[in-house]
Amino acid sequence: MNTRTRIRSHRSPTSPIAPGIPADPTTPAGPTALDADTGPIAPTGLSTPAGPAAIPASAGGHGIPTGLSTPAGPATPTRTGGPGTPTRTDPETPTPGLELRGIDKSFGSHRILSGLDLTARPGRVYALLGPNGAGKSTALSIALGLHRPDAGVVLVDGRPWTREALGRIGASINGPALFPHLDARRNLLVHAHLTGTDPSAIDPLLDAVGLSGAGRTRARRMSTGMKMRLALAIALLADPDILLLDEPQNGLDPQGVIDLREMLIDLARDGRTVVVSSHQLGEMVRMADDVGVLAHGRLVHEGPLSDLADPDDAVGLEEAYLALTSGPAPTRGESVGASSSRSQGSTPEPTTGESDERGEAK
């Protein structure tokens, strides 16, 4: 990935949808995907959403950054009113790009999230950490409208979630969702048509994510790493202000992991809100400004990375993380871990992992 390549996209202000998810949750992503040999193709990897269909892309006018200075760091916002009330911040504190407040979610008898609060700010990389099955993907899916929460609200730029607000979000959740019979460029061309993005943005973006040499290789023949790079390109295609990535380093070789890290840091420095979920603590501490540790259905810690442990002390970070995620579920109001950690929600029912709409573990 060439993180020095600057990309500008031009999205029509009237364009109704964005990459990856159709406007109607019951309709496959549009008829614009054509293969020379087989005709219309539907993408793979898209689960049917329970709530409004998510539209993970936008045009924020940033482009791939070239190392701009980092905006002012985080400060605790002053909140007034109940859920759904826009967040007030100090004049020098940017409004959070994404907030989840009091989110509860169960699938059948499985409690996945319980009173989850999460705050991610522009100009910073937010690492959402937690063991497998902790609910990370579910939390991000709720932020996109792929699942409806049982309780709580999602705020985008300090205002309640709307379908229109999703036009400013790019995302890759639950693995790549690609048209298997199309090559990388034609996959992106489909999404460019869906979002009203100028196709001239495609080639520089392929170069930025390291796929300029992919040629005519169809998605079904790509390696796991190539698919992850293509998924990242789709998420960035319409130049979003908020980027949500679920385990984006999966399948990447060591150089790909380094390139991804540098790109996400640069994206944040350009003023975006970048949220990355992972269970790989070692890699996340190399890129994160803020961390949220998810366990027992809620954040047991949220704050700057340095509040969790010394970032240069690998053993200390690991011990702090394991202490937060391996202990028993705390009750409402009980303090967990360091003084900056916070306990959220009531104790959820035990669960062996995240679940789909039928309550099946995944």
Widest beta sheet: strand line-up: 8-9-10-5-11-12
Q: How is the biggest beta sheet arranged?
A: 6 strands, mixed
The DSSP helix count reads 8
- Which stretches are low in confidence, meaning pLDDT under 50 for 5 or more residues running? 2-61, 63-91, 332-362
Report the top-level CATH class: Alpha Beta
CATH architectural type: 3-Layer(aba) Sandwich
Number of strands: 12
Task: Please state the structural category.
Answer: alpha/beta
**At the third CATH level, what is the topology name?**
Rossmann fold
Instruction: Give the mean pLDDT.
Output: 74
The rough form would be described as globular
Number of domains: 1
Q: What is the straight-line distance between the termini?
A: 31 Å
H/E element sequence? EEEEEHEEEHHHEHEHEEHH
Strand % is 15-25%
